[in-house]
Amino acid sequence: MTDVFPNEKRSWIMSRVREKNTSPEIKVRSLIHRLGVRFRLHRKDLPGKPDLVFPSRKKIIFVHGCFWHGHDCSRGKRKPKSNSDYWVEKIRRNSERDARHQSKLESLGWDFLVVWECETKDIEALAFRILSFLNP
């Protein structure tokens, strides 16, 4: 199958994909800040450089993009039309890497929560889920 975009355009699109400070991550950070809970960002000394870290609670929140991390929602199940073999393998590796990081964090005594991009659409439900996680 041919690529929908020429190489230069595809390269430009991919250069806009961010690793941190994504829209879903900023939504979650803003919500948690409004809830009055303080956190640290992207701690490099922890496996996976978690998006939000609550050191005094030994809790972590990861904010995952549905497509990039292989969520089972409609957005996460989409398959790319071009170079699909590469992307299927890439998403599989991302999921495996996530599982490794989460396992390491558990062994270090950290609890974690994964917030999916699709969950940021219902802020009230997300707020309840996050507060339940942070304040058991």
What spatial form do the alpha-carbon principal axes imply?
globular
Span between termini? 50 Å
Q: Fraction of residues in helices? A: 40-55%
Mean pLDDT: 88
CA radius of gyration is 16 Å
Count of alpha/pi helices: 5
Number of beta strands: 4
CATH architectural name: 3-Layer(aba) Sandwich
CATH superfamily: VSR Endonuclease
For the record, what CATH class applies? Alpha Beta
Strand order of the largest sheet: 1-2-3-4
Largest sheet: 4 strands, mixed
Q: Which H/E pattern describes the elements?
A: HHEEEHHEH
Q: What is the fold-level CATH name, i.e. the topology?
A: Endonuclease, Chain A
Low-confidence region ranges: none
Going by helix content, strand content and strand pairing, the class is alpha+beta
Count of folded domains: 1
Q: What percent of residues are in strands?
A: 5-15%
In terms of topology, how is this protein built?
Elements: H1 7-15, H2 23-34, E1 40-41, E2 52-54, E3 59-64, H3 66-69, H4 84-107, E4 111-116, H5 123-134
Parallel strand pairs: 3-4
Antiparallel strand pairs: 1-2, 2-3
Give an overview of the whole structure.
The protein is α+β, with helices and mostly antiparallel strands and 136 residues long. The chain has a single domain, classed as Endonuclease, Chain A. The protein is 45% helix and 12% strand. It has 5 helices and 4 strands. The chain has helices spanning 7-15, 23-34, 66-69, 84-107, 123-134, and strands spanning 40-41, 52-54, 59-64, 111-116. A hairpin with a 4-residue loop joins strand 2 (52-54) and strand 3.
